[in-house]
């Protein structure tokens, strides 16, 4: 075997390895889009220092026995702060709660004008047929986002979607409280939570 044959063999093997790397990358991207990311349990930070919270933010002690929180309540999601310019506030500036929010209204996209009544259950949004709100477009992931009640307020959580979830024009990276009438954009569809 001379030098030119050896060089050609090395180039063939290198090209084959590169091709397989691309194939595995595509399969991984498709798998995560179809089945979503693996869910990891978050550890609660029970030993947070009291000095990290201002005295005005700490609620007064409740007299009487207090029940231990349920397992689902063990994790408190971080809440994104509103931008100084008020980018996360809705038209009336109020938070969407279980008492003042009764419907989800799609304002743009293929299902524009459609309204969904809101209850206390979590609403999953995505292309998957097992989602509560199915949005079939090229910019929506299989399991894209979730709307859930947390401490009686509606929260928006992005589920590691490819193209992101936007609340009032800002990308949602952590579970975020939703103001009333604020625009939520997922793929080519926009919706609002209303009274």
TrEMBL record:
Signal peptide segment: none
Record Gene3D superfamilies: 2.60.200.20
SUPFAM superfamilies: SMAD/FHA domain
InterPro entries: FHA_dom, SMAD_FHA_dom_sf, YscD_cytoplasmic_dom
Keywords: Membrane, Phosphoprotein, Transmembrane, Transmembrane helix
Superkingdom in the source lineage: Bacteria
Domain FHA: residue ranges: 123-172
Name used for this protein in its record: FHA domain-containing protein
Annotated TM spans: 6-30
């Amino acid at each position: 075997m001379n030098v030119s044959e050896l060089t050609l063999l090395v180039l063939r093997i290198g090209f084959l390895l590169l091709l397989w790397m691309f194939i595995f990358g595509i399969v991984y991207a498709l798998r995560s889009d179809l089945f979503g990311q693996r869910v990891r349990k978050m550890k609660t930070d029970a030993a947070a220092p009291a000095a990290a919270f201002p005295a005005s933010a700490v609620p007064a002690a409740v007299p009487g026995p207090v029940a231990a929180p349920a397992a689902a309540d063990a994790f408190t999601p971080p809440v994104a702060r509103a931008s100084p310019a008020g980018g996360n506030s809705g038209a009336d500036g109020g938070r969407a709660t279980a008492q003042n929010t009764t419907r989800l209204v799609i304002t743009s996209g293929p299902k524009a004008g459609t309204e969904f009544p809101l209850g206390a259950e979590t609403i999953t949004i995505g292309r998957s047929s097992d989602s509560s709100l199915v949005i079939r477009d090229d910019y929506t992931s299989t399991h894209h986002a979730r709307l859930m009640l947390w401490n009686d307020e509606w929260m928006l959580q992005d589920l590691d979607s490819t193209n992101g979830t936007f609340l009032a024009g800002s990308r949602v990276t952590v579970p975020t409280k939703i103001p009333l009438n604020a625009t939520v954009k997922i793929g080519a569809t926009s919706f609002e939570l209303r009274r």
